[in-house]
Amino acid sequence: MRKHLRALLILPVLVFLACDSAYNPEEPEIRIEIPQDLLGMVHAGSRNEVQEYKLLDDMGVSWMLRTFNWSTIEPGKGNWNFADYDAYIGNGKSHGKKIFAVLAYDTSWLYGDGQSRNYISPEQLDLYCAYVKKTVERYKGSVDAWGIWNEPNISRFWTGTAAEFYELTKRAAAAIREADPGALIVGGAFNTLATEEWIRGLFESGAMEQVDALSYHPYSFSAFSSAAIFTGVQEILAGYHFDDKIWVTEVGFPTGGSYLTKVSEENMPEQVVKTIVSLATAGAVHVFWYQLFDPAERNPDDSEDYFGLLNRDYTPKGGKEAYALCSRHIPGTAYRPGLPVGAENLYNIRAFYFEGEARHTLIIWGEGDSPEPKTVRIFLPGSERQLHNPVDGSSEPVDGESTDVSVGGMPRIYTWENTDKIKVPRISVPGGIGF
């Protein structure tokens, strides 16, 4: 939360002059480089439809995440079937998408009774690693990153012990390295329910010795709490020098069902922008939204059926345009936490400045559960100033460098053109400092 400064009221022009004098472009400043391929989408590309890939292009999706299920790849012992994933990768690559493949789950013949246990026993690890190695060998150079399992901290996906999962991770990473020494390997895939012991155990067991990054799913009630959970994980990983190697490979909110984390479709654009901005500026290497589509038939009590940004027939639910705006204006920029000038003087206002080569972005919103709109004065240097609407994706021109705006819970996304890095955005309160 921004520090609330109580000061004498002064004329706005003097506020801007004071801010300019405090800003020295020659001084070293923290810059967080945002990857050009920041954003991904879970379960994207699975339909293998031209319309789906056009949608992914329009939304600016760089990565597609899919589970490469062992049960599909080896439905019978020694009976390998890669046809489905061959088509998936072929289509994805032809459309310029990066692919995150998760190596997970058991297969029906493994225990002789045709039952799934979401478990690989120590005695069956060799068979699991054979599937891992064969899959990686086949798609070496086509899959851009490999994930090991999914949410092992809950019994829905892993019924073994933590120690057994650590051993699976260690063995799977070794198998991936053997098949492709240059592979990018992501381990963990924990969600919010994972205890600190789960996370620390993965490192202290030696399971992460050949792994490049940690996957985490900070599901929560709001963007604010998701970001807080993420920074808590960073604190844990700092001791292992992994705090800058965290991939958020799932995050999102259902719009129905029984989960306490559900939000309305009307509120989804706000949560999408705030979540992506908060995680990107906190240092997430990538952010994958869960997920693209709702299923064709939804159980009204099951929130898992309501995480999509679109309905199955491609009609948007809410949040699609917000995601697209983030993808157009955040990746490939540098987040500068010391700007805009004057933001540190504002109470209950969050402001984020993303600097590009020529095009820059300012995203601001009011803080709190239901923030009362507050009037602020923003100064955007340069030309081609635009205000973008996260709800419908529309844009409108902003007249003049200085303008007074009402800021509430819905983020306001401003962009402008400016190659002069000395001229930076400023923000203040008309007639004074702070609130």
Quick structural gist:
This protein has 435 residues and is α/β, with parallel strands linked by helices. 28% of the residues lie in helices and 21% in strands. The longest helix has 18 residues, at 162-179.
Can you say what the CATH homologous superfamily of the largest domain is?
Answer: Glycosidases
**What general form does the structure show?**
elongated
Tell me the CATH architecture of the largest domain. Alpha-Beta Barrel
Helix content: 25-40%
Strand order of the largest sheet: 2-3-4-5-6-7-8-9
**What is the element string, with H for helices and E for strands?**
HEEHEHHEHEHEHEHEHEHEEEEEEEEE
Largest sheet: 8 strands, parallel, barrel
Remind me, CATH topology of the largest domain? TIM Barrel
The assigned structural class equals: alpha/beta
Total number of beta strands: 18
CATH class of the largest domain: Alpha Beta
Mean pLDDT across all residues, rounded? Answer: 92
In whole angstroms, how far apart are the ends?
13 Å
Could you tell me the radius of gyration in angstroms? 23 Å
Q: Figure out the total of helices.
A: 10
Q: State the domain count.
A: 2
Low-confidence runs: 1-23
Strand content: 15-25%
